Amino acid sequence: MLSKETYEKLIAYIKKNYNHDACDYTSERSYGNYDDVFWDGYSCGESNTLYEIAELLGVENQLHGE
Known about the structure:
Elements: H1 4-17, H2 27-30, H3 37-57
């Protein structure tokens, strides 16, 4: 079980680093900007992972300001 301090740090990290828009990137966004394609994929993967962790903790609704 997580300590309250660790839980709060984890939630703060997720809120700080989760980027909903990163999951909406399309190939058109990166067209002609090939140096940035890796970063787009990384950002999307990171945000998807953070969202899944938030779901496991039951706080995913806090990521959208609901």
